[in-house]
Amino acid sequence: MRKEDTVKLISAEGFEFVISKEAAMVSQTIRNMLTSPGSFAEAQHGEVTFPEISTTILEKICQYFHWSLQYASCHMTAIAKF
């Protein structure tokens, strides 16, 4: 996976989670930070720091992003077959 296809999410303790940009885009807030025409530093560096979210919680959030992608694609396939 290329660096431009990933996003780094950083917890309050400084732990870094590198996940696919596609997974991160599950969050509308992160999507806005990474794609808005404004000059968000997050868009320039591909990093989003969450100073109030612990490592444990951010890990679960990342897991949810990946689960949501998987579920959404399975759900859409089932709808297409219906």
Strand order of the largest sheet: 2-1-3
Number of strands: 3
- The CATH homologous superfamily is termed Potassium Channel Kv1.1, Chain A
How many domains would you count in the coordinates? 1
Describe this structure in words.
The radius of gyration is 14 Å and the shape is globular. The protein has a single domain, classed as 2-Layer Sandwich (Potassium Channel Kv1.1, Chain A), CATH 3.30.710.10. The protein is built from 4 helices and 3 strands. The protein starts with 5 loop residues before the first strand and ends with a helix.
Feature tags:
Elongin-C, nucleus, Potassium Channel Kv1.1, Chain A, single chain, 82 residues, globular, ELC1, alpha+beta, 4 helices, SKP1/BTB/POZ_sf, 3-stranded mixed beta sheet
In short:
The protein is α+β, with helices and mostly antiparallel strands. It has a single domain, classed as Potassium Channel Kv1.1, Chain A, CATH 3.30.710.10. 54% of the residues lie in helices and 16% in strands.
SSE layout:
Elements: E1 6-10, E2 16-20, H1 21-24, H2 28-35, H3 41-45, E3 47-49, H4 55-81
Parallel strand pairs: 1-3
Antiparallel strand pairs: 1-2
